[in-house]
Design a protein that fits this description.
Nucleotidyltransferase, domain 5, Arc Repressor Mutant, subunit A, five-stranded mixed beta sheet, DNA-binding, homodimer, alpha/beta
DNA sequence: TGTATTAAATCAATTGTCTTGACTTATTTC
DNA sequence: GAAATAAGTCAAGACAATTGATTTAATACA
């Protein structure tokens, strides 16, 4: 920063910016609609057929799209549809959770190609980052064995961790992973791998996964409540993940909202409504590698402790959904998580009937007010991997701006 | 919509879109920074000096910017700063509230030029719209008397009403203005005036006003809690007002959040925390034209009923702020409203100390966690008027898209 | 006082992307 | 088999930003 008073302004754009936008528009249209002919794309995007033709040709040269057999649909020359080439790009997703790290590698369309899991390295992040770099390196080798041409097509690494970030001096809470959250992990991984690394919280990553492959596919206004070790919300607003001013948006687990019978000194929501609290109630060690199976069994058995927990959690989530609907007016709310499907389903069942809210309209859109999303311990890693793909290929305001 | 299966895609762009974006970028930079030379603009926007020169010349031709006296600042040729021409554009703001309608006309920089107030026409919207059209027409005449050249520079009319919109069959609540909310008022005004009309809820309009002239100026992530007849939140996310999927985002007055001592059957937040509830407690008729003065006096006198109300409202707002901070991670939260300044200040005072949240960080940005915004019965009308200005001149994703 | 230096702003030619309008190709309809 | 319809291409043109040289006007320094 030089001495002159700093001037704040957004970036302008140029022909390159417009072109980049149009490329992304094409890829986005193909991702949402499956396969489209050049004429379809021209109609859908408002561009001229010639422009579409040029861009498609360029994308085909780059190995991002591919033609398929032409289809006759009435009069006129048959259309040649194009679809995204799955192996057109790859990205790595890395999830750091309280007890495990998970790595996945996905392709352009979100297929998982490599998948590894290990315990969170003990000894803290300073040493642990070396272990993690090793894990990432091994995953890349596995990928290269399958797809030798993948080297130049790795668009980045998405890192997902429980939030919040950057405020740890105030909250030294055993529910948080202070050491890892304070460590410049993204920078160190970027140095170690040479890849672009983006950090987001686990709920945002889960929401990205929902948007790519799950219930939020093709929707632009969705709240994803993520039930993991903690509790968070991934916010899809105007078709993009919203991170807030300091990447901590959606930390609903830290809300101090009351339920009937609570006194004023209520604890954060995630102390009642999270896998961690359920483990607490059930006496399960959350670092147990069989965690998922143990919880699944406990939910299936359904003892009184489980029932009590589900009732309490469902009651709080019911209020949370009403609150989030009032605030966001979303197309739908999704309950997802690194939790067994049975648990998600039980919670949704117990959350009904939902409370009245502005989302409770007579002629509802096709989407229900509340629905189950991906209930998969891998969805956060998957969403983390989807982030670099989205960053590289999705239409967004920042992609239009001039690149120096 | 034709018979073929509908294809969803975003719009592409072209040179015109890029150019339109750059024009907006310039105006935005001048609005935020006051006055800048072409060289300053080039540096700030990343565009070349030549491009900036061309665009500034064009803007000057359109009467939107104007040069001022050149300033010597060290070596080299003195810079010629440009600033926005206040009379470069005009817009009308129309607020429909439970008991009054307010009309303002503002110019490009947000100065209020015309200002009228009258009772909400009785007899419902079908007849009332004619009265309103007449009011708007009169306001325009007043403007033309002052600025004869304003005719072609009227960019639109912003309409602000209490929300929510479109769900009234479910909530026939005396706190809402069902008849007006169900009437296609925006369309009718558009027909009657020939202007572009945009509808938003009053809290969003208030937030727009804060962004243009108030505490949110230059900030991109702000939650504005609007205390009016009802209670709402205007959401500034990524520098734009967020309206949700169906323009009802921010209806926090309808949240069913508990405070200590509430039972499960709690009423919506705005039944405790709004000017309407205060009037209720004080026995003031909210349709009294002296409302503002009456409330101001009552707050100054500070009887036990007022104190009780303030304590209750402050307690609920304190929780609401903690909740909104956890959800949005904003740069700041603003409490504003069509309420007396003294009331806003008293509430903020009583809301302290704020509850712990992710916004409670040690090294805080310049902005405080919570601050008072515009406390002015005119701010909603002003924000409504600012909306067409923003739509016409602010950089935004949709402005880049190709215009057919 | 005179020359070098620095910065703002402009001129003229160039580049890159989309657009336009005519044209080709392939299929159905009558 | 001719007309109609639709997909897709070709080649020239339009438009906005870029580039590099140039002009203008101030300060710095000898």
């Amino acid at each position: 920063m030089d001495a002159r008073k700093s001037i704040r302004a957004k970036s302008g754009t140029n022909l390159g910016g417009a072109s980049a936008h149009n490329r992304r528009i094409m890829i986005d249209a193909l991702r949402i609609n499956g396969a489209l002919s050049r004429a379809d794309l021209a109609r859908a995007t408002g561009l001229t057929p010639q422009t579409v033709s040029n861009i498609i040709e360029e994308l085909a040269r780059d190995g991002l799209v591919q033609s398929q057999a032409s289809v006759r649909k009435g009069r006129g020359q048959p259309a040649t549809p194009y679809h995204l080439v799955p192996d057109g790009a790859f990205a790595i997703g890395l999830q750091i959770d309280r007890h495990v790290t998970r790595t996945v590698i996905v392709n352009l369309v979100g297929d998982v190609l490599v998948q590894t899991e290990s315990k969170l390295p003990s000894g803290g992040p300073a040493e642990g980052v070396l272990v993690i770099l090793d894990i990432v390196g091994k995953a890349c080798e596995t990928l290269m064995a399958q797809f030798p041409h993948a080297a130049g097509k790795l668009v980045g690494l998405g890192l997902a961790m429980p939030g919040p970030f950057g405020i740890n001096e105030l909250y030294d809470d055993p529910w948080m992973m202070t050491a890892w959250q304070n460590f410049p992990l993204a920078e160190r991984i970027a140095e170690g791998t040479g890849l672009e690394v983006a950090l987001q919280n686990d709920a945002s990553a889960a929401a990205t996964a929902e948007r790519l492959l799950g219930a939020a596919h093709g929707l632009d206004h969705v709240v994803c409540i993520y039930l993991g070790y903690g509790l968070g919300a991934g916010l899809i607003l105007n078709g993009e993940i919203y991170g807030g001013a300091y990447s901590n948006a959606g930390e609903i687990g830290m809300m101090l909202a009351l339920a009937p019978g609570d006194d004023a000194n209520v604890e954060p929501l995630e102390h009642y409504t999270s896998m961690a609290s359920l483990c607490n109630v059930l006496g399960i060690d959350p670092s147990d590698p069989r965690l998922f199976a143990l919880v699944t069994d406990a939910v299936a058995d359904g003892g009184p402790a489980v029932e009590r927990w589900i009732n309490n959690a469902a009651d709080r989530l019911r209020r949370t959904v009403q609150m989030l609907e009032s605030i966001f007016d979303p197309q739908t709310t999704i309950l997802c998580g690194g939790a067994p499907q049975a648990l998600i389903d039980r919670l949704i069942e117990r959350m009904g009937p939902l409370m009245p809210s502005i989302a409770d309209r007579a002629q509802r859109y096709p989407e229900p007010r509340l629905q189950a999303g991906l209930a998969d311990p891998w969805s956060v890693a998957l969403g983390a991997a989807a982030e670099p793909i989205a960053r590289a290929f999705d239409p967004r305001f920042s992609a239009i701006l001039k690149t120096p």
